[in-house]
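Thread: "does anyone have the structure for this chain?"

Original post by V.I.:
We have the sequence but no experimental structure in hand. Need at least a predicted one for the grant figures.
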Amino acid sequence: MNKIIIEVKSVYGNDLIYPVCDDAKTFTKITGTKTLSPFVITYIKRLGYEILYSPSTIRGLLWN
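Reply from O.Q.:
Generated one for you, tokens below.
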């Protein structure tokens, strides 16, 4: 199964999804954005990709 790694950052109270790996960055190039929306993540999953969170994202989710 293909996998992409993302990082979720809170920017001015909004959670934004940033690409970490090359495949995730390719999806942002396709969409013409710097971040991935939940809508795009849904379609990435439909293409058979597994979504992995970077360790810094997991730390942030646990301690915020």
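V.I.: this helps a lot. Residues 3-63 form one domain.
O.Q.: and The chain has one domain: 3-63.
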